[in-house]
Amino acid sequence: MRKLMFATLLCFVSALFTAMTCDDSNIESVTVTFENKSGDSLYVDDFMFMDDTTLLSPYHVFVLMPYPIEYVPQNGFYEQQANLRMLEQGYKFQLIVFKKGTLDRYSKDELVEGNIFDKRYVLSYDELKVTDFKIVYTGD
């Protein structure tokens, strides 16, 4: 029985180390570039959901996935790697934009409860390809 438990533990540890050292450099990705031409300082976040019905919202940004959102200065850029295979399979690249003034005006709770943001992009592979994988935000 001890040998069986030891063998099971050894298999588990081996699988864990294999997963942790997995080389994902062979995953093809494309760089999606967001350009801020609005004259305002912005904060952005992006995600690719596994379905077409989920829209990136302040709830995802501040509650479910509370990673730091990215600052994009006036005339600045934000670049993100998007999984090419997922895009080709129909997943959408989503990007949500908050002006600095919006974040100053509302608390995180108010943003979440009111679903408040300044712009959301939900773009397919074909839509991104047409723009050469560039999103230009002018403030509109």
Verbal overview:
- By secondary structure, the chain is an alpha+beta fold.
- It contains 6 helices and 7 strands; from the N terminus they run αββαββαβααβαβ.
- The strands form 2 sheets. It has a 4-stranded antiparallel β-sheet. The protein has a 3-stranded mixed β-sheet with strand order 4-1-7.
- α2 crosses α5.
- The longest helix is centred in the first third of the chain and has 19 residues.
- It is globular, with a radius of gyration of 20 Å.
- The N and C termini lie far apart (68 Å).
The helix/strand series, from N terminus to C terminus, equals: HEEHEEHEHHEHE
Portion of residues within helices? 25-40%
Report strand %: 25-35%
Count the DSSP helices.
6
The shape, in one word, is globular
Strand order of the largest sheet: 3-2-5-6
The overall strand count is: 7
Low-confidence stretches: 18-24
Main pleated-sheet profile: 4 strands, antiparallel
> What is the SS-derived class?
alpha+beta
Top keywords for this entry?
single chain, 140 residues, alpha+beta, 4-stranded antiparallel β-sheet, 3-stranded mixed β-sheet, 36% helix, globular
Summarize the structure.
This protein is an alpha+beta fold and 140 residues long. 36% of the residues lie in helices and 29% in strands. The strands form 2 sheets. A 4-stranded antiparallel beta sheet has the order 3-2-5-6.
Question: How would the blueprint of this fold be written?
Answer:
Layout: H1 2-20, E1 29-36, E2 42-47, H2 58-64, E3 70-72, E4 77-83, H3 84-88, E5 93-99, H4 100-105, H5 108-114, E6 119-123, H6 125-130, E7 134-137
Parallel strand pairs: 1-7
Antiparallel strand pairs: 1-4, 2-3, 2-5, 5-6
